[in-house]
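Hey, weird one. I pasted the 9-cis-epoxycarotenoid dioxygenase sequence into the form twice and got a warning about non-standard characters only the second time. First submission, copied straight from the form history:
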Amino acid sequence: LITADGEKLLHKVDLNLSRCSLVHDVGITERYNVIMDFPLTIDLNRLLTGGPLIKYDKQDYARIGVMPRYGNTESIRWFDVAPNCTFHILNCFEDGNDVVVRACRSLNSILPGPEMWEDKFDWFSSKFRFGHGDDAASEDDDVSVFARCYEWRLNLETGEVKERNLTGKTEASMDFPIIHPAFTGLPNRFGYTQTVDSEASSAAGMPKFGGLAKLYFQEPATNKDADNQREEAMIKVEYHEFEKNTFCSGAAFVPKMATAEEDDGWVITFVHNEDTHTSKVYIIDAKKFSSEPVAKITLPCRVPYGFHGAFMPMSLPVPPM
């Protein structure tokens, strides 16, 4: 932990992990830090002996650690969970004795990608399977990188773990989640993700995001959203799809006012149209999510896929009278 100005280290802990897990994201609640120790690992010794630097082992263990904000190694409470690959946490919060963790989870890792001898187009085509019926990747399909919004509830009193999918497989794989920044570590009603265009990703041999999704955590799925829900209670999902051959990166949520409702703001993202070779900024009203963007700003240069950051409020000087 560091100070808000980034100048001073306040607290440092050695987690004493038994492997070098690729921990891409950490979560926080009001009182705890949330650590994901999943079986996607980096190993230089493995590389030196001819193996891959990055490897996902679906047979290895997965666990989530809950540590008091200024705790030590011994204070971490570890919860065993089903093996999975998760890069990005949507939010974490406390609910009674439960620590709730929501993230975009898949059953395999998009890193390191296809082996050198594999055709990357076939690899992405098989890994991003989606659709209905026989075309849909099942929950038991352990080769899929189809990411879904997922929830773990970790009970600090009993040690019990409850985990479930929040979204179905009938629409699109989703990742790079965002929320209203004021709700980080607190219960929240809404979240947003980028959605994968499976066909374009398969053709390009790389993930391409052809739209956005809005997640309604307190509303049940419609019949369309619940089409593949089985016994699970899915949440409502609303989609914003871009024009053909237009793909995004770097989505962020910008609230209109500090006192506004949680979804009273804009989702802002960088998009690139591969037909016209132009990059733009799209500004989408989060309350009218599936509607046309309220603004499209053409940029003077190409914004590469993968670009991302954060919008930070700043004080503007008062102009002279």
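That's the output from the first submission. The warning seems to come from a hidden character in my clipboard, not from the data itself. The CA atoms of residues 190 and 216 lie 5 Å apart.
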